[in-house]
Amino acid sequence: MDLRKLSMVLALAFGIISLLTVILIIYLGGDELLSYLRPTLIQGFGLGIAVTAALFFFLRLVYKLHAMSMALAMLFFFIGVVMFMSVSVSRMYVLQYPVFVQSFGPGHGPGLPVKNVITFFQRIDEFERVGDIARDPNDVPSPIVVKEVENNKTMLNNDMGSTTSTSTLEVAPNEMVVSGIADMVNNGALLPVSSHEVEMSQGEVRELKLETTEILSEIAPGIIFNYWTFNNTVPGPLFRVSEGDMVKVTIHNRATNLHNHNVDFHAATGPGGGGAVSVVAPGETKEFYFKALNPGLYVYHCAVPNMAVHMAHGMYGMILVEPKEGLPKVDKEFYVMQGELYTTGTIGRQGLQIFDAQKMMDGIPEYITFNGRTGGVTGKMQAKVGDTVRFYVGNGGVAHNSSFHIVGEIFDTVYPEGSMGGALFHNVQTTNVPAGGSSIVEFKVDYPGKYVLVDHALMRTDKGAWGILEVVGEKDDTIFGGNFSAPANSSH
Ligand SMILES: [Cu+2]
Fold it and tell me: 440 CA to middle of ligand 1, Å?
């Protein structure tokens, strides 16, 4: 065969292989998979062109110019470069999808079955698309028992609903002076009772319902992630029970899901915190129970291997086990959980983002969020001057502790690491919230303005870890003063 024909055949073969590859990808996973693999295809196509051209060059050197030694030198040069690149790059980055990552944990590694990866792309249109993945930070169940600090009077809440008690901002200013506890009494949420009746209320059965879901939602505008959740939000719901209560958990794994899930309650004493008896396949439902023996603020999370992978998809939430005597009354309660997202695309890359197991193993998240996405708790939290405020702060991790801080505020009281019954901290600037742990902070808001919640490892604000508590009301010149105007060189 002459060289011209051979060259034509080679070029044609290259073209056909490229086309078949694209068709195979579309067949396996549709446009979404094609779009996801685009960088790899461009890389692969480029490499193909280079190899084909090198081959033409090699053949011409040998058969036309009879320069065999020069051809061999070129060949070895080419092999040498490829060897060098193969060590430094090792594999095309986009293919670091978990199926290729080897690890040595107790369960199986962060790799997902190839079958599930392909199935994900094939069924991508069947996954629910959730508009806002962030749990509303106001979504805090009403107190069960409230400890009145001033006169030691105890009150009982007979309403076990999870309605929030933090909606007083809508009322007219002259009604806003009514204290939070009075609001709740007026709403029928709380009824004064004797201490004897409080004793009787202990040891109730609390039914918690969890649905595990695999959905699509936005990390930031235009940046899509396949979240795995409890009850379709990140974090999952905040549950509220009382010390000594029997907690009955029902967990259902949505039928469209691809993976098994379960739940490990840090508030439970027993194998896996319930994880050992709650593994559910897609479509399956299970029940288990535990007694809330110890008061405190506890994380719950999915613990199906690989546990870190499930948590890094958003599978965490918290349960508050109130002490028997309740917590001191406050005017506002908020629920905020920090968490990390590991995506193959670097921060800001638009479109569908695939979970990156290697980045998770290295502990380098692209996004660190409050309540699951950037801006997850911004514009949602309000209080008025004079309010006492309590934050239930948690950390789903999966790698990093949070140095929780609110710019311009001081925590009057901290329940360190969400513990109860021991020493409380007072006058704290920044509190540690361990991965898989919590903290409770309380403070009175004294001055109007915007107070920024941060993880004080401050570069994490650029990854999304911040939110705003807005305080409205009268300025108090005895506490703070100054000129709020913009600097002279500001364009605003
Ligand atoms: Cu899970």
Answer: 26
